[in-house]
Amino acid sequence: MKWEYMITVDDGEISELGIQGWELVSVVQQNNEVKLYFKRPIQSFRDRITCEQRDAVYRDLLEGTG
């Protein structure tokens, strides 16, 4: 499995990040700053594309060949 990673210092968005599939894996304090490290699985292209985007591509292909 492949992962994507994100580092943030804003802890006010943790709930939203969880909804988006991010998992908090580490919290590190450096000087006076706290860094939050997140990871989530990288979605396949098929999972990332919406039905509307897919339909638009097919429509463009059909119109280009007609």
List keywords for this structure.
single chain; 66 residues; alpha+beta; elongated
Structure description:
- The protein has 3 helices and 3 strands, in the order βαββαα.
- The chain has 66 residues and is of the alpha+beta class.
- It has one domain.
- Strand 2 (23-30) and strand 3 form a beta hairpin.
Structural class determined from secondary elements: alpha+beta
Largest sheet: 3 strands, antiparallel
Overall 3D geometry?
Answer: elongated
Per DSSP, the total helix count is 3
Number of domains: 1
Order of helices and strands: EHEEHH
Strand percentage lies at 25-35%
Spans of at least 5 consecutive residues with low confidence: none
- Per DSSP E runs of 2 or more residues, the count of β-strands stands at 3
Distance between the termini: 41 Å
Order of strands side by side in the largest beta sheet?
Answer: 1-3-2
Radius of gyration: 19 Å
Query: Could you tell me the mean pLDDT?
Result: 87
Helix percent reads 25-40%
